[in-house]
């Protein structure tokens, strides 16, 4: 839940201590804050100590490892190295990886890795978070090679290496989704997150400066979803349990009738925060009543429960809790609700959904039986990533990472769809911040590729065609279908990875076509037109190749002839099991011997070109027939010349002679 507490709150906590600040003892203040896990405060004072030691320079520190190192003369850890390491730890403690990275690097450069054996591991983690994936893999691999301590740290390194490789692939071929930060009144000087939409209004959590309370504190706000107006705090009648400024509120959600609101409420005593889920009923005056803590089915004594989500039928509440019966850290649970909205039980979603690490921010789509939530326990891009799993009568499918740019190298939580636009949704992420969650809106540009398969000659719909949607990099078939009498095909295109459509039917040439990138118009048979024709063939039956042209009395291919022959090259490559004869024919002008030689040279010129384009020479051979196989009269019945007939006889054909 650290993202629920804005760094600005920690700044406020520093203020009274800062008044007592001693220039001679910033390290002691830093150590105390660090031991209390107040990492922002610790970083503040460690940085003061670093400034006193002249460790702060204007020159940036590169992220690549290696280089000259220096050790303390007495073999002990120098104060400078200690401060550098603690600065890295403090920045990493509140997930400011950009600031943490160079301090771990400095420890490595100082040659004190033996004193701080985890410095290379955390340096690699920072590199991953800052998207230096190749260097991160190198550093993490080096750590695993040299580190001889607790195996759990090598396991962390292994997981981070896997994350880096996964992230590289995701960034190279992102999902067809546009993600952008919400601007205007949605953005503040604090955290803004966990949005919920109801009746054209957006309800969200923000730690923006509250003028009435003169501080930064997490509160619930409402704003028209078109962004007009200014955010207004959601007010509750004070239940008198404690001063309102000591309480914080977040993650709002409503019952379908809008009469109940559920939310997380928490307070901090010393360094410990206590979280529980509350509800409030709207009164006849339109004002929300005093918050009521949910019963022990959800809020177990001594444990935290957070982030409620009410299903659209109002029958269940998904939530997050550390209560007994989980698998470690924050787990996703579900509770059935009574008619008055009270939880009557609760059940952990099990080890398929939950891991030994943290899971948070559940959203459940009742109609599609789909759970979207965030987890740190699976392979991902880093921090909390969104995962998707389907419910089949209480059995959950293996969670699938929802990919980049849905996910980032930082924390990504609180998915919610836009009820007014099926292709729009909202998330919360700190991907553009060193400290705080912001609201983002996303447009789903994933689409359906569909069309018709026809016979190239008759243009009639072609049933019985196997159409496969294939990943052209891995060669994995994503999905296949066989066309029915409608001859239509349909596939979902989700990412910018290159895909092919492979169309196969007995008695027809197989066709492989690249799926165009999103947004491009489709034309012709390169799948720039979703309607595709297949060419029929019969063994030993010649097929005419139109427009293979030569200069008079020559066998040299014209440029336009090569363009035509490229179609045959494609057929040969798409159908690796066929062998063909390529034949050239002439009309009757000239001697039979001359025409045989000319036709053989012309056929061989075609074959040589096709072989030069990557077709194996044992799959195609040239045959010149001269004037011996006319398909039209060279002369008319009256003995005069027949130019039209001669033109038909001067032709190039190919024939499938073998199918392996």
From TrEMBL:
Annotated transmembrane regions: none
What is the organism field in this record?
A: Mucilaginibacter achroorhodeus
Where it mainly occurs, coarsely classed, is membrane
Query: Looking at the record, which segments are called Disordered?
Result: 631-652
Show where the OmpA-like domain sits.
537-660
Report the subcellular localization: Cell outer membrane
The record's Gene3D superfamilies line, in alphabetical order, gives: OmpA-like domain, Tetratricopeptide repeat domain, TolB, C-terminal domain
Q: Which UniProt keywords apply?
A: Cell outer membrane, Membrane, Signal
Judging by the UniProt lineage, the source's domain of life is Bacteria
Kindly give the PROSITE patterns that the UniProt entry links to this protein.
OMPA_2 (PS51123)
InterPro entries tied to this protein: 6-blade_b-propeller_TolB-like (IPR011042), Bact_OuterMem_StrucFunc (IPR050330), OMP_bac (IPR006664), OmpA-like (IPR006665), OmpA-like_sf (IPR036737), TPR-like_helical_dom_sf (IPR011990), WD40 (IPR011659)
- What Pfam families has UniProt attached to this entry? OmpA, PD40
The identity of this protein, by name, is OmpA family protein
GO annotations of cellular component type:
cell outer membrane
Specify the signal sequence span.
Answer: 1-19
């Amino acid at each position: 839940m650290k993202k629920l507490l804005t760094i600005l709150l920690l700044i406020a906590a520093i203020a009274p201590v800062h008044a007592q600040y001693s220039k001679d003892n910033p390290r002691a203040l830093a150590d105390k804050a660090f031991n209390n896990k107040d990492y922002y405060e610790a970083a503040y004072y460690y940085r003061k100590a670093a400034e006193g030691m002249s460790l702060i320079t204007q020159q940036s520190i590169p992220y690549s490892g290696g280089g000259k190192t220096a050790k303390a003369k007495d073999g002990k850890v120098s104060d400078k190295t200690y401060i550098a390491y603690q600065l890295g730890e403090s920045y990493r403690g509140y997930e400011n990886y950009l600031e943490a990275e160079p301090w771990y690097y400095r420890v490595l450069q100082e040659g004190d890795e033996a004193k701080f054996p985890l410095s290379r591991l955390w340096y690699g983690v920072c590199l991953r978070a800052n998207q230096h994936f190749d260097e991160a893999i190198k550093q993490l691999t080096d750590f695993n090679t040299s580190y001889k301590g607790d195996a759990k740290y090598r396991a962390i390194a292994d997981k981070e290496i896997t994350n880096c490789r996964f992230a590289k692939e995701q960034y190279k071929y992102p999902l067809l989704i546009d993600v952008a930060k919400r601007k205007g009144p949605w953005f503040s000087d604090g955290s803004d997150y966990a949005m919920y939409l109801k009746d054209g209004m957006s309800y969200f959590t923000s730690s923006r400066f509250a003028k009435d309370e003169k501080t930064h504190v997490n509160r619930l706000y409402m704003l028209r979803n078109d962004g007009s107006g200014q955010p207004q705090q959601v007010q509750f009648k004070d239940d008198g349990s404690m001063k309102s400024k000591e309480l914080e509120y977040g993650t709002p959600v409503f019952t379908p009738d809008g009469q109940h609101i559920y939310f997380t409420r928490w307070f901090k005593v010393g360094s410990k925060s206590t979280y529980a889920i509350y509800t409030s009923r709207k009164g006849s005056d339109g004002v929300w009543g005093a918050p009521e803590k949910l019963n022990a089915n959800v809020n177990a004594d001594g444990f935290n429960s957070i982030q409620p989500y009410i299903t659209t039928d109002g029958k269940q509440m998904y939530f997050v809790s550390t209560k007994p019966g989980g698998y470690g850290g924050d787990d996703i649970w579900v509770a059935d609700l009574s008619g008055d909205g009270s939880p009557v039980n609760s059940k952990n979603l099990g080890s398929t959904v939950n891991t030994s690490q943290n899971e948070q921010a559940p959203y459940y789509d009742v109609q599609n039986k789909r759970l979207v939530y965030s987890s740190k326990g699976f392979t991902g891009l880093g921090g909390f990533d969104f995962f998707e799993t389907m419910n089949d009568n209480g059995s959950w499918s293996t969670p699938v990472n929802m990919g980049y740019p849905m996910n980032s190298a930082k924390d990504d939580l609180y998915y919610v769809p836009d009820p007014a636009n099926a292709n729009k949704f909202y998330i919360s992420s700190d991907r553009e911040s060193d400290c705080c969650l912001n609201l983002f809106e996303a447009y789903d540009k994933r689409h359906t590729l569909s069309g018709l398969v026809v016979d190239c000659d008759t243009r009639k719909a072609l049933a019985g065609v196997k159409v496969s949607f294939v990943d052209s990099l891995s060669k994995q078939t994503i999905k296949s279908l066989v066309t029915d009498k409608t001859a239509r095909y349909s596939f979902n295109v989700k990412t910018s990875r290159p895909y092919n459509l492979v169309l196969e039917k007995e008695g027809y040439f197989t066709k492989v076509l690249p799926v165009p990138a999103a947004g491009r118009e489709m034309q012709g048979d390169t799948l720039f037109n979703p309607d595709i024709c297949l060419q029929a063939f019969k063994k030993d039956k010649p097929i005419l190749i139109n427009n293979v042209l030569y200069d008079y009395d020559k066998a040299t291919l014209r440029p336009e002839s090569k363009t035509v022959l490229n179609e045959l090259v494609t057929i040969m490559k798409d159908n690796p099991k066929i062998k063909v004869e390529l034949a050239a024919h002439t009309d009757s002008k000239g001697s039979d011997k001359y025409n045989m030689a000319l036709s053989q040279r012309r056929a061989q010129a075609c074959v040589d070109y096709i072989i030069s384009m990557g077709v194996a020479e044992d799959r195609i051979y040239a045959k010149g027939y001269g004037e011996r196989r006319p398909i039209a009269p060279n002369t008319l019945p009256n003995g005069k010349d027949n130019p039209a007939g001669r033109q038909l006889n001067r032709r190039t054909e190919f024939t499938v002679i073998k199918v392996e």
